[in-house]
Every structure is written in C-alpha cells, then in structure tokens.
Amino acid sequence: MLRRRTFVRDASYFVHSLSFSQLPQDVIDKAKICLLDAIGAMLGSQSLRAVQIVQRYGTRYTGREMATIIGVNEKTALQQAAFVNGTAAAALDIDDCQILCSGHPGAVIIPAALGSAEAIQASGKALIVAVVAGYEVATRFGVTQTSAPGETLVYGSGRWGCVGAAASAAKLFNLDAQGISHAIGIAATFGPMAPLLDQPTIKPLPMTKESIGWGTMVGVTGAMLAREGFTGPQIEVEDPSGRIRRLDEEYAIRRVTFKPYPSCRWTHSAIDAVLELKKRYGREIVPENIDRIRVYLFKKALHINHPSPPTVESAQYSVPFTIGAAISDGEVWLDQISDKRLNDPLILAIAGKVEMIHNPEFDHAFPARPAEVEIVTRLGKTFRRRIDFPKGDLENPMDQRQMEEKFLRLATRSIPQKAALETMQAVKQIERIENIAHFVEIIHSRQS
Description:
Shape: globular
Order of helices and strands: EHHHEEHEHHHHHEEHEHHHEEEHHH
Number of helices: 16
Number of strands: 10
CATH superfamily of the largest domain: 2-methylcitrate dehydratase PrpD
Helix content: 40-55%
Strand content: 5-15%
CATH architecture of the largest domain: Orthogonal Bundle
Structural class: alpha+beta
Distance between the termini: 61 Å
CATH topology of the largest domain: 2-methylcitrate dehydratase PrpD
CATH class of the largest domain: Mainly Alpha
Radius of gyration: 21 Å
C-alpha cells in the first residue's frame, strides 16, 4: 500500500517546536562539526574560478547589506550571500554527505542558516537549532527526491537541500508553524531541478554542479517571502518503502559523514586503496613501474570516468585522475585537484592506465561504496586492496583531531592561522555567542 505523508505540515510543527534545550549533546556536537566543515570548505575554495565568478556577481549586483560573503568579507543582500556562500561551500567537493539521500546537505543549509543568523543578529544557540532543523527536514525530503538503493537517482542536492535551507531561515526568523510551512512549501515549489553529475552525458562537468548555491538562495528566499505573507503549498510525499523516519524519532544529522579528499565521494574508496598500497609497497608502486591499473566498482560509479578532465569540476568526478594524483603525489588535496594540474603529464599518464570495471557484487553493498584496486607492475607483480567504507564514513569516521586538521588546511588558504584557530575555538563554544555577526567578524579578523 502506498504511504503518503503531509510532509510540510509535519516538518513545520517539528521546526517550530524545536529548542536548544531538547537537543542531545551528541547532536549539538555534530552540528558544530558540520558548521566547522562547511566554513572550512568556503574558505578553502577562494582560489577556484567558479567561486571568484560568483563573488564578483555577489558584490557587483548588491542590495541591502545584510550578510557577509565568506572569504572576501563584504556584505550584500541575504539571498546573494546565500548563493555565493553555498556555491563556495560546494565548489571543492569536500563538503559533508548524507548517506540517507545520497547528497550534500551542509553546503545548502549552513550558508543559509549562517547568513540568516547574521542578518537578524541571532545567538549561537539559535544557529545550532536552525542547522539541526535544516538537516532533519532536508534529509527527509531528500529521501523522496532520490531513489532507494539500486534505483536510478533523480535530483541533486540543491533540489532537496533547499527545503532545509528554508526551514533553517524560517526558524531563525521566528515564524510560526504556518509561516514555516509556507516557507518550506515555497522552497519545494521553486527548488532547482538539478541533474546529478554522474550522468554520462554531462561532460565536461559545469560550475553549476548540483545547483547547491541556487538551492541555498531559494531556501532563504522562501523564508523571506513567507515572512511577508507569501504562501506556499502543503506537499504530500509518497513513501512506498517506509524509508522516511518521523521527525521526532531520530536525528538524521547523526548520519552525516565527512570527506578527507576534494572529490566525489564515489572516488574515495579507490583513493584510500591506492594510498594504502602506496604506503605499504611504496618502492614498487611508482609511476615508472606501473603497467596497468584496474578498478572494480559498483555500476553507478562507472560514470565518473574522466581520464583527461578539462575542468576542475570534471577532475573532482574522475576516478582515473584522482588515482593518478594519489600515485604521483602521494595525496589527493587542493593542489592536485586544481587548474594548474589538469594537464600534468605524470598524472594524466597514470590516469590513462586506469580501467574501470563493473563488479555486480558491489551494486548490492549499500550503504558501503566498495572499490577494489588492482595495480600490475611492468615486472608482472600484482597488488590488490579493497575498501568498503572510505575514510569519513560512519563505519570509518574522521575523529575530532582529523576534522580540525582538515579545517585548518582549508581555512589557512585564505585567512591567517590565528584567525583560523580563533574561528575553530569559537565554533566549539558557539552556544555562548550572543550575536552571530560577531562570530562572522572572528572569521575575518586580521586578514592579511
């Protein structure tokens, strides 16, 4: 029997009633890590062409100065700041993941929540509540916009994340339950119909990616319109498999995972496998010794096969290129996935030796995203390694120290070390901050 739920009504009552005092400590801590991770992604992406383009847009076509463009420390209209910061948060492809709906909630929700909190001078506690509300609403709507395991995915993160952005902003604007329902309904109606980037026909991959920046703007706009009395629909969602958990049953933010590499999550198991083999057999796994590389993957991952990517975005979605970088440099980070390295002859030579092969067994391994790498040397030796859960998954998590190191590596690409450390400390104690505008000032303090 087909299950239907009045999603908007249920979500609006949940968001309206949610308070800081009822949040479990581990949920608060997870929201802080999500906040830190998203800010790091925004700061780390400042050198990307896509980010510089949207920053020019955000500052040239400005409106009422309400919220800050992270990284350049200029204020603009809230919707524009949301768009620019959402784009920046997703640009490196190092933003967080939600396995329940196969996408990236943080890059959509956190820029919306942070900008809205700054615009109305909300407290740190209010920001945390808004972030949690956004993740919970977006994840459950996302389940209806993506597929069950083994089916074809439909929409990208901007499509379903926008309702989380709306929920976050509406909560911060202190709308009543009816106003929140309108904000969510407006966002769901206006949300971008973003195609996923694993479609084989989308080459080279565009700067639009999964319309995350646009989804952030739509969500904030939905809340602002609802605040003025604009109405949105009550939306019923179909849940034939019963996958949508009640909002008061479990916090979906607990299921959020993080990335150690700036590339599509589906490349990470192969990267981990290569780096482990290189660490163990380093003297034998060097570029000049490699004859061929076979990578066994689940079917959907076969699409991310760009051995000679023409753009950074295509490189982020390339198993061969990321493997080439891992073998060439011994790491996959921002310096490898960059415009300067797209034509690197050593990376491309290795990438050209990669053959991607479908392993039907892996199609049914969800939530694992397995990859098995087989490296054959010119002397006939074969080295194999299989990874089911890449670093950052719930089964193989990044610890607090690793998350902080990741943040500092990203943030210090655009702000001084002292400002980055102060920002990290402020996030740890965000509930003590009375005005989020002061927190944004900390991020940009003493920029050189």
